[in-house]
């Protein structure tokens, strides 16, 4: 007796294969979309170029230049403008040295009523720190700036709107920590400030308390007593 076995349903097999192919394509498309999303996310991240200021070349314009080989020092005089990434230093005289690791250091000084000038962009925001002083020392290794004698430092929104302003004898700005300090001194003494104390104007940060403006609220008496009377 011949036993007959059922033959596979060709249509069912083809349908099963088609479903498997469809699922594989869906998985492939999902993986591709995830990969593209990760690429887009990476390219959308802000490029913090200002963090690389210390790795940028130092460019200087001046009326005169001399080189002190003994002390490994470049000296620039006369309307000096030094730029290094987003950093700008302007002074009557700028001395530049470099350590064995390649880090650069600049000291700008000015005389008379002219003050030296410094500016650097803050990381990740459209804000700048700028300031004036008789002497400005920039430490390229630590991204640290020191302004000495009749110093003023401002935090700017863009390049024009002053948000904070600090006056002092010596002001330091740490570009890595985005932190600055100020100390008092006789060189900033004047009318209304005979002891030369530090003075600052600090604008409120966004997201803080709303300004006290607008019409006063209208008060009206209640016609009912709410709550439980106290015994």
TrEMBL record:
Pfam annotation, one family: LptD_N
Chief site of localization: periplasm
GO cellular component assignments: cell outer membrane; outer membrane-bounded periplasmic space
Family matches, as PANTHER family: LIPOPOLYSACCHARIDE EXPORT SYSTEM PROTEIN LPTA (PTHR36504)
NCBIfam families the record matches: outer_YhbN_LptA
Free-text function comment from the UniProt entry: Involved in the assembly of lipopolysaccharide (LPS). Required for the translocation of LPS from the inner membrane to the outer membrane.
Entry similarity comment: Belongs to the LptA family.
Name the UniProt record assigns to this protein: Lipopolysaccharide export system protein LptA
Species this chain originates from: Caballeronia ptereochthonis
């Amino acid at each position: 007796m011949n036993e007959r076995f059922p033959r596979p349903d060709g249509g069912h097999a083809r349908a099963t294969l088609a479903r498997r192919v469809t699922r594989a394509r869906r998985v492939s498309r999902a993986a591709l979309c995830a990969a593209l999303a990760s690429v887009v996310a990476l390219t959308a991240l802000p490029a913090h170029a200002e963090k690389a200021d210390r790795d940028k070349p130092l460019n200087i314009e001046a009326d005169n230049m001399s080189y002190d080989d003994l002390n490994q020092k470049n000296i620039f005089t006369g309307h000096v403008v030094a730029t290094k990434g987003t950093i700008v230093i302007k002074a009557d005289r700028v001395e530049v040295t470099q350590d064995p690791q390649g880090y650069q250091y600049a000291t700008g000084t000015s005389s008379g009523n002219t003050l030296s000038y410094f500016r650097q962009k803050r990381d990740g925001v459209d804000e700048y720190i700028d300031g004036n002083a008789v002497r400005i020392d920039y430490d390229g290794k630590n991204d640290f700036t020191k302004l000495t004698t009749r110093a003023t430092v401002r935090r700017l929104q863009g390049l024009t709107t002053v948000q904070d302003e600090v006056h002092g004898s010596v002001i330091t700005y740490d570009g890595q920590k985005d932190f600055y300090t100020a100390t008092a001194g006789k060189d900033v003494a004047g009318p209304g400030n005979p002891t030369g104390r530090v003075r600052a104007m600090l604008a409120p940060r966004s997201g803080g308390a709303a300004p006290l403006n607008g019409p006063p609220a209208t008060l009206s008496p209640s016609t009912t007593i709410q709550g439980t009377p106290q015994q």
